[in-house]
Design goal:
Layout lengths: L1 H25 L1 E4 L3 E9 L8 E11 L17 E15 L2 E14 L17 E15 L4 E13 L2 E3 L2 E5 L5 E10 L7 E11 L2
Parallel strand pairs: 1-9
Antiparallel strand pairs: 2-3, 2-11, 3-4, 4-5, 5-6, 6-7, 7-10, 8-9, 10-11
Length: about 210
Amino acid sequence: MRKLTALVAVAVLAATDAAGAGKSADRVTTRDVSLDFVGHVTNSPPGVSPAASSQYGYLSYVGGVPAFKREPADESSALFTFDARATVVRVLASGPLRIITRVGRLTIYSDPAANGSFANPATFSDGKRVLVASFRQQAVIDTLTSAFTTTNRNKILSTAPFRADRTTVRLGRVGARFDTILSGHVNMPAPPSGYFAGSTTAFRAP
């Protein structure tokens, strides 16, 4: 009888633990990738082949969670940063417009240390990776004004949960797609090669 009671108690405890684990897993909140970007771009010097582009900075808005640790709201207080590396696959010309197609990978980081600095681009990739996406990018540069617009077609490759405002959050799902529209201005002389800001737009679940 004692053995039966002990076995029942063990079974109850195991079921309770399993239920608790399920509840813990259910507490992860998945959000659409609704983001605002502020960043710099540094391109490889002329003559380098294949031409490369490094785009980095911070998120000034992350849908549903705080984006800054403190005031003032800038790179030094941003809780989320990003780093994108791309390679040029084609360059076209149309009148004063220069059209550049790139492919690459975007990584978004959660960085509770909030220590970003444009003087040290490495500070934008020293947090926890919370989203990795591949992308195809088209940048259109007006060579008369030095203004440019960029469209990124992103596909999420991996995403990891993180803590934000007493909640465990995940950005998007693997396989989901989202677009990013950026506006910027070329800087001469480099570095950086330019400045930009923009937002995610369309979001498509896998």
